[in-house]
Amino acid sequence: MTAAQDTPERFSGEWWGDVLLGNPLKLIGLVLLALITRYLLHRVVDRLVARATRAEPPERLLGSRRVAKVVFGGTGVYSERRALRATTLGSLLKSIVTAVIGVIVVVMALDILGYPVGPLLASAGIAGIALGFGAQNLVKDFLSGIFMLLEDQYGVGDVIDMGEAMGTVEAVGLRVTRLRSVDGTVWYVRNGEVIRVGNSSYGWSRALLDVRVAYDEDIERVRALLESVVAELAADPEWEQFVLEEPEVWGVESLAADSVVLRVVVKTEPLQQWKVARELRERIKRVFDAEGVEIP
After folding, report:
1. Within 10 A of 68 (CB to CB), how many other CB atoms are there?
2. 50 and 82: one domain?
3. To the nearest 10°, the Cα dihedral for 78, 79, 83, 84?
4. How many other C-beta atoms are found inside a 10 Å radius of the C-beta of residue 267?
5. What's the predicted TM-score (pTM) here?
6. 127 vs 253 pLDDT, higher one
7. Is 88 a member of any domain?
8. Do residue 163 and residue 261 come from a single domain?
9. Are residues 161 and 239 in the same domain?
10. Partner of 146 at 20 to 30 A CA spacing, among 2, 57, 176, 177?
11. Closest CA to 19 of 112, 157, 137
12. 241 CB contacts (<8 Å, ≥6 apart)?
């Protein structure tokens, strides 16, 4: 057999060997490497999430119960908010890791199989630009959702005001936020359309109570009565757990046509301001009735 006759057979054998052994082994190795990399990166994310959820306020603050409550709203609330935020961000990071590794594996697999990757990447870039122009609102919603999670603007269980919608947050997503109002209406708000958010339950809250009394009442006497009422509430074992600081009577807030308005303020645990305010109204009403203070 001549060299000319031997070359095609040798070339054919090498080609089939590369097809049956070389490329499949490379693809299997690529997939295994991708799976191991994905597993390791997910483990890293899980460890970071676990560390964040176990974190507690500094020890020097935990020594003072009242200081810790004022700064963090109680260690339980502190840990719960961190856990929810860390879990959500961890899920997002793991999804991003999986997507990035998947895209890299597909591109490298096509290159191993001999397909031209350059035109594919160029086409994907053009398609991405076209998709970006056609889905600007969707991209805006996702970007706003990511920054909202990173900045911890609100979380599940918070009472927030989004302008047209106000209520308790039931679910937080990258595209929409679901909240339920007091009357039971469920609102779905796109994150990209949120201009401002008012959070009534972040860290601490404050009960504001405007008390109206007649013009002929002695203001100093009324103020003393209010101070005694709020002091008794703060000292009550049933209510002291909700009060973060000593209640205050700020004094005359305004002069109405038929009454003098005095303001009482109490710094409370998150979401407890309405409950504390209702209890204060009942106690003030009983004291005013007993002392003969007229409420217009």
Report:
1. 19
2. yes
3. -40
4. 19
5. 0.59
6. 253
7. yes
8. no
9. no
10. 57
11. 112
12. 269
Q: In what order do the strands lie in the sheet with 198-199?
A: 186-190, 176-180, 166-172, 159-161, 198-199
Same domain, 36 and 99: yes
Tokens 């007229």, residue located? 294
Same domain, 252 and 278: yes
| Per-residue pLDDT tens digits for 142-180 | 888 888 877 778 877 888 898 888 898 888 877 888 999
Count of the separate structural domains present in the chain: 3
The H-or-E segment that residue 170 falls in is strand 166-172
Residue with tokens 């401002």: 196
Query: Smallest Cα–Cα separation from 186: which of 204, 165, 207?
Result: 165
The whole domain housing 160 covers 153-199
Q: How far apart are CA 34 and CA 48, in angstroms?
A: 21
CB neighbourhood size of 126 (10 A): 10
Task: Provide the CATH number for the domain around residue 255.
Answer: 3.30.70.100
In a domain, 148, yes or no: no
Q: 207 φ, ψ to 5°?
A: -85, 120
Helix-, strand-, coil-residue percentages of the chain, each rounded to 5: 60, 15, 25
Specify whether the CB–CB gap between 226 and 245 falls below 8 A.
no
The CA distance from 198 to 97, in Å, is: 33
Q: Residue 36 maps to which CATH number?
A: 1.10.287
Do 176 and 167 form a contact (C-beta atoms < 8 A)? no
**Does residue 252 lie within any of the structural domains?**
yes
What was the pLDDT predicted at 71? Answer: 42
- If one counts every other C-beta atom within 10 angstroms of the C-beta of residue 134, the result is 10
pLDDT digits (tens, 9 = 90+) for 20-30: 556 778 888 88
Give, in order, the Cα–Cα distances in Å from 80 to each of 95, 119, 167, 171.
Answer: 23, 49, 20, 15
